[in-house]
Amino acid sequence: MSEMTRVFLQDHETIEFDFAQNKDDFIVDEIFAKPFKEKGNFLILHVKKVNMTTWELIEKIASFLNLPESSIGYAGLKDKYATTTQYLSLPLKYEKQLSKFHDKQITILAVYKDSKKISIGDLKSNRFKIILRNVDDIKAGKIEKIARNLEKNGFPNYFGYQRFGQDSITQAQEMIDGELFIKDKKVKKFLTSVYQSKKFNEWLNERVKISKAEGGRSFKLLSGDVMMGEDDKLFTPKSPSQKEFMDKKIVPTGLLAGREVFRARDEAREIELKYDDELLQEKGLRRRAWIYPEALICKYGKKDSIMELSFVLPKASYATIFIENIANKNF
User: Structure pTM?
Assistant: First the structure.
C-alpha cells in the first residue's frame, strides 16, 4: 500500500528544479514557544544535529549520561537528512557530566535552566532555509511569485513524505486490521500515528478536490467544520465565515482519528466520517488543515543557479509541502 498523491489548488505548470534534503540544502531551526526562566531543576539544551534523527540524538545523549531516554524532553521531531537545531531538557544533576559530551554530529550551542521539562508541542514554529538548485532567471521569477502567493493565501497542511517511512503505511494498516501483531509499544504508537496521518491526508485530499472543483483559490468551508481560533481553541460555528478564514482569524481543522476528540458535524462530518476510525484507542487530535508561511525571503544566486528560500512555518507542518506547492508536483 503506497502513499497517495497529494493534490494542490495551484493550476500553474510544473516547475522543474533540483531539491534534496541534505545538511547543506535543508536547514531547520526550532523556535520555542516561551522564554526560559534561567533557574530551576531542568537543564535546557539548545542543540544542533547533522544528518541524524531526533531519536538518534536523544539516544546518544542518554547513553553518554547513562539515563533513561524518557528523562529527556523534546518539543518536536526534526528531519534526519538536514542540519537542524532544537531544544532538549534533562535533569539538572547531569550538568557537570554533560560538559564532557562530544560528538561530531552534535553541537550543544547553549545551556539554560528552567523549572519545567520540555514536552511535545511546546515549540511555536520552525524557521527553514532551503536551497533549490538548477534554477534559471525565468524559474526564479516564477518561484518567488508563487511563494509570495502562498504566503498570502496559504496551502493545505498535508503530512509530508517524511512522515511515511518505507513500508510503514502497509504495516500500519495490517496492524489496525489485526493481521500484524506489534509488541513494542514505541513501534505500535508510531504505526498508529502513521495510520492517523494517512487518513488525515486522504480527507484533506478530498476537501482540496472539492475546493478546486468549485473554482476556489482557497479551502472551501462546509457547515459543521471544526475551526481553530486565534487562541488555538476549537469550536464549530453554525455557519463558518469564509471571510474570517481569508482574514486569517480562523482556520479549519482535520481529524486525527481516536478517542476523546472534537468531531465535525453536518456536511463536514459526512466527508470526515469516511476517514474516521472510532474504534481507535489512541487519543485523537485536530490538526490545522491550512497554513501560511511567514517571514518569507527569496534570494536568487544567478552565478550558481540557486534559489534560497527562508521562511517560518507553524509547528506540525512540513516545509517539503510548501516546496511541492511551488513546484506543483509530489516529491
Answer: 0.92
